[in-house]
Amino acid sequence: MSIRQLPFIIATTLSVWLPLRAAADETQFIDCSLLVAPEYPATWPTAPFPRFQIMHQRTIGPDSPYNIDALLIDGNTGTQIDVPPHSVARPDLKRPKSGELGLAYIDKTEAWQFGGEACVVDVRDLLDQAPKGESPLVTREHVLRFEKQHRQLRFGDVVLFRSDYSDKYYLPLPAGNRYIADALDHKAPGYPDPDPDCMELLATRKVLTLGTDSASMGPLPSLAEPTHYAGLKYGMIWTEGATNLGALPPTGAFYCMFGPKHKGGPYGEGRAFAIAGGDLPKRLIESAKAKRAIDLTPTLAADSPVTSPGIGAGQHRQVYLKIDFLYSEYLDMWHHTHLMDSMAGTHLVPPSFALPPEGKAVQYAPQVRGWLEEYEGKYGERGTSSMTTEQVPLSWTCGEARVIDVTALVGTTDKRSWPASPEITVAHLKADEQKHGELRAGDVVIFHTGHIDKHFKPQPADTGLWLDPLNGTAEGWPVPGPDAIVYLKEKGIRCVATDAPDLGGVEPKRALMTYWTLGSNEIVGVEFLHNVGEIPDNAYFLFAAVKIRDCHGGPGRAIVLY
User: Alpha-carbon distance 161 to 142, whole Å?
Assistant: First the structure.
């Protein structure tokens, strides 16, 4: 090398190194979830497992100012999570595989266990390296190889087996038959998966959270149940059907996976993602490892008020139903699916919930046309949006938790004005800033009303949450008005959350104006939280809805790490 070449070599090296360094310093959200849609192999393909369905029950027009969807979805759909009762029998059954973990359903999983440091075990050399109908086995040697290259695994790690199987084979049907069906029919090799001995090794490392980018954690044709039990008996939980694991570094990223909080669920549909780069991953990893986490999601159950009954006959949303379809004699348990509104329980409100797509002429009902004229006279033209759930950036629904206590508004309306909801105004937001500091761009603003904490009760004591306020026999819950939403937009807020049933309230006109304002300003909502009063300072809010295409809602689970 001559001295004259040195500047060129330095410049070339810096041109490669500096962008990599910048990427390492910049926080990135990495989606590790499969898209759920009817034409994808999102559900287990053997009978009697039900196929996923999304039903657009109402669309924006004369009958409704909102897009309203219902879902038929079970826990074996898309990217999913398994918990111990998938294989561990209840203790009262007194069977060889019985234990207390047979009661550790998905609604009982502690929030801290959903996340940790991603440790990506590269097993791409196994892809398709087996006879048709059989899975290449991930063994303890693969784990030991990772440890030799990086470090020994430990409590707080999330071990992710990366084969790139889902990246390659999760495709629209019929090509998507290669993902599961062809392997089951012995037309193609199975997906790579760990054997029971690999699980035993991970148990010695105190690892409690795993993931695979295969369709299941169970190797074909005969080791599925032995491998499941080998890990689940220790209290492990794991992601099945992850994807895009190649975008994660081998160690150092924060990974999490959670989904709807179904009562008594032995597994559940979910959303997996990772956060890499900058200081945030280390902070979240340390919090999860120290078990500093709070679950903000009420449990979904058929006897609880998890969906809106609407105002007047025929205006209710799809009620939440648990539908049994396959009985497991050993576990004395029915596998089940759910028919539910897309906004059942804790859920996302994307811009397209209240906004039509660009270029679509909307024929609102006469009353709503009058409301729109009034709205546009004050706030400008109502926007348009095609941003459904799967398009909402993960970074919008995660951020520093900024709790604004509005419980003082409870009881401030005149009974003669009911149905009415106290309005959260710009003055309330500014008062909070005077006390707690300026709102910052990227904060997740969470309104603490206390409504769900007080009124979320099973039937027949459930009327206080929705019915009484909507019918005007009780005061509505506090909600932000359009002016407050405009102010939050000016502050750089992308996500507004509440521990009330919704952000609109009980007055249809003002509710619609609030949702128009949210959507027009590209602010998303997260509704139906609880335990908000327990959130400490310096907490980080995490929420992601199940990745369902063309969905105008989106069930999920919200937690904070602190």
Answer: 10
In a domain, 305, yes or no: no
Long-range contacts of residues 197-200, Cβ cutoff 8 Å, at least 24 apart:
197/139, 197/140, 197/230, 198/137, 198/138, 198/139, 198/140, 198/142, 198/143, 198/227, 199/227, 199/230, 199/231, 199/234, 199/236, 200/140, 200/230
Tokens representing residue 415 in the block: 């009974």
**Boundary-marking domain end, from 253, 269, 291:** 291
Residues 373, 256, single domain; the answer is no
Distance CA 55, CA 172 (A): 19
Distance, CA of 512 to CA of 66 (rounded, Å) = 9
Q: Tens digit of pLDDT for each residue in 267-277?
A: 999 999 999 99
Same domain for 256 and 140, yes or no, is yes
Exposure of 173 by Cβ count < 10 A (0-12 exposed, 13-18 middle, 19+ buried)? middle
Q: Domain containing 538 — which CATH number? A: 3.50.30.50
Please tell me whether residues 283 and 354 are part of one structural domain.
no
Distance of CA 234 to the CA centre of its chain: 25
Flag residues of the chain having pLDDT under 50: 1-22
- Tally of domains in the chain: 2
Residue whose C-alpha is closest to residue 514's, from 481, 543, 536: 481
Dump the DSSP string for 257-274: EE---BTT-SEEE-EEEE
Residues 281 and 371 in one domain: no
**504/432 same-domain check:** yes
- CA–CA distance, 427 with 559 (Å, rounded to integer): 28
Percent of the chain surpassing pLDDT 70: 96
Q: Are 319 and 342 in contact (CB under 8 A)?
A: no
The 3-state secondary structure of 431-450 reads HHHHHHCCCCCCCEEEEECC
Q: Structural domain of residue 493, as residue ranges? A: 347-561
With residue 284 as reference, give the H or E element that holds it.
Answer: helix 280-289
In a domain, 238, yes or no: yes
Q: Is residue 48 part of a domain?
A: no
pLDDT for the residue numbered 19? 44
State residue 25's pLDDT score: 76
Verify that 379 and 477 share a domain, yes or no. Answer: yes
Predicted TM-score of the model (pTM): 0.94
Upstream peptide bond of 62 is cis (omega within 30 degrees of 0): no
